[in-house]
Amino acid sequence: MSTTFSQIPIIDFAPFINGDANSKNLIANQVNQACQGIGFMYIKNTGISENLIKQVFREAKIFFALPITVKNQLAWSDEFSNRGYVGIERERLNPEQPGDLKEAFNVGKEDNSTNFNFGQNNTSLICNPWPSGEENFRETVLNFYQACTETANIILEAFAIALQQPTNFFTNTHTAQNHTLRLLHYPPLQQTPKPGQVRAGEHSDYGSITLLFQDEIGGLEVCTTAGKWIAAPTIPDTILVNTGDLMQRWTNHVFCSTKHRVMIPEDEKKAVSRYSIAFFCHPNDDTLIEAISSCVREDFPQLYPPISAGDYLLSRLQATY
């Protein structure tokens, strides 16, 4: 029986990374409780360099300060890649409300041995449309993508142990690195928003897990299993992690994919930019998502029909944009 959480727990991953099997099981048990009780957790001591986190935030601010004409040249315009610039109000995470008051830049896996033409699309490859002359931006973002990938694999190992599966159960289905690193900028509010408009509408994430890095401005709220919205502020030296919809399907709702949103501050912070970075971890496209055996019982049968991870992601993206 799961425990209902009224706040997001903090889990130290150092014993999982450096400890013995017993230590790993203890941390996996904490992960299990968090994923069942609220679907969010702060984790610390994952190995991602604080300097690298600061660098990628600095580069994100430089990128979003570029002229809109430059950013629009990098806009995500195809159906499949989920890469490139997304302008303010283009995305509606809550389809019933106006467009979100944010802009974003999405990055996927890239072969560093390939010479890409900065600022131009390459029709022979699915690649990232980088701004011309911003090589530091590209290098920093790709280094951060790799660091997040390594940390996500550690978390997925803990998930597997928590669900009584082999340690590599999830990592074996994430080998293609079909992940999306998203840089986010919520501009200062300069006019009255439309009715119901917020910085990011109420939604759940699509994939297996999400790693979130925030600045100090705040605004993120999480809905508990009791239906109460609580703040999810920045906690120094931690990463905010949540389970996504595919993980919820995979675990037959044993792990919950929790609704969350970014509200407009009611104080002077609404006149200040907010920045965050999300790493959306997604299984290989051909992975068949069906209920894990340990999450199905005679009195709790499989809730969803099987679906491929790729088909599910595409359907959700088409509904959002």
TrEMBL record:
Keywords: Dioxygenase, Iron, Metal-binding, Oxidoreductase. Pathway: Antibiotic biosynthesis. GO terms for molecular function: dioxygenase activity. The keyword Iron applies. Pfam families: 2OG-FeII_Oxy, DIOX_N. Residues 177-283 form the Fe2OG dioxygenase domain. InterPro entries: DIOX_N (IPR026992), IPNS-like_FE2OG_OXY (IPR044861), IPNS-like_sf (IPR027443), Iron_ascorbate_oxido_reductase (IPR050231), Oxoglu/Fe-dep_dioxygenase_dom (IPR005123). Belongs to the iron/ascorbate-dependent oxidoreductase family. This is Isopenicillin N synthase family dioxygenase. It comes from Floridaenema aerugineum BLCC-F46. The lineage of its organism: Bacteria, Bacillati, Cyanobacteriota, Cyanophyceae, Oscillatoriophycideae.
